[in-house]
Amino acid sequence: MLKSISLTEKERSILRASVARGIQTLESKPRVSIFYTGIQHGLRIGLSTFIFIIFVGGSVSVVADNSLPGDALYSFKINVNEEVKGAFIKNPSDKISWQKSRIDNRLGEIKTLAATKTLTKAKQETAQRALNTHIESLSEELSKTDTTEALQITADLEESLKNQKEELKKYAVEGDEKNEDAFKAVDETLEKVSNQENEIVSKELEKISKELEDVTNVVSEDPENPILPSPDQTSSPEQ
Fold first, then answer.
1. CA distances from 38 to 29, 30, 31, 48 (A)
2. 6 vs 72 pLDDT, higher one
């Protein structure tokens, strides 16, 4: 039966024209190499992963900002969120203000736990470790600033801590160990700030003593024609 099948000349012409038309209209697509395909696939996966990390990381960051000592994300809040924010602060005065605000925030967290009767010794110790770190960072920044300004900052911070302690008294219950832990955190912080003030004053007194010693040595060497240090080498009247 196959041998008996044949096309007329007209049918053959129509078939050839159809094939030719199909060849002409068919778009020629370049052959993509496996290497190029692999790169595209890798880039798509990388971009998707990056977007996922940004989304998840941003969500975690927002949740962590509201965490308290003892919560799972509290360490993330202290060591990641706040450290990243602080890294973008370049102005010395702004750095000092940032460290002061962190100290106030830690005490505010302790006050919140005390108010909700959820403060434990472990949570108080967690907050205290963070406070100690903040005070060390503040001390480092204060060492780079003017003595008068540094003393004013520590005095303001000390006053703020005393106010925090007064606020805690509103939630105090006599004989409650949780409240005692809260007061202990504030008292220890107050002591560290007070020690910082003493350290600043001691360094300034040492500086003045050294300058007076230098002046005395110059005068003793040539009492009739002493060459005193220039004004910029001595302390200002305010200091």
1. 18, 16, 14, 15
2. 72
